[in-house]
Design a protein that fits this description.
mainly alpha
Length: 65
């Protein structure tokens, strides 16, 4: 293989690795937000005393999802 082909291959691999790293960061951020949202909803549900409180907590959860 000529050296130019190896150069193109290494550029492609570097670009692919960078894309995977960015994808990983986005997925991690999404998961952190989801866990935080679920934890906050759990805390909100602990304070439910009436049916309307439960509906409000559920609505808040649905809006943040």
């Amino acid at each position: 293989m000529p050296a130019a082909e190896f150069g193109g291959l290494s550029e492609m691999q570097a670009s692919f690795a960078q894309g995977l790293a960015q994808l990983s960061e986005e997925v991690n951020a999404f998961l952190r937000r989801s866990i935080d949202n679920a934890a906050q909803t759990g805390i909100d549900l602990l304070g439910v005393r009436t049916w309307s409180d439960a509906i409000a907590a559920n609505s808040k959860y649905a809006q943040t999802c």
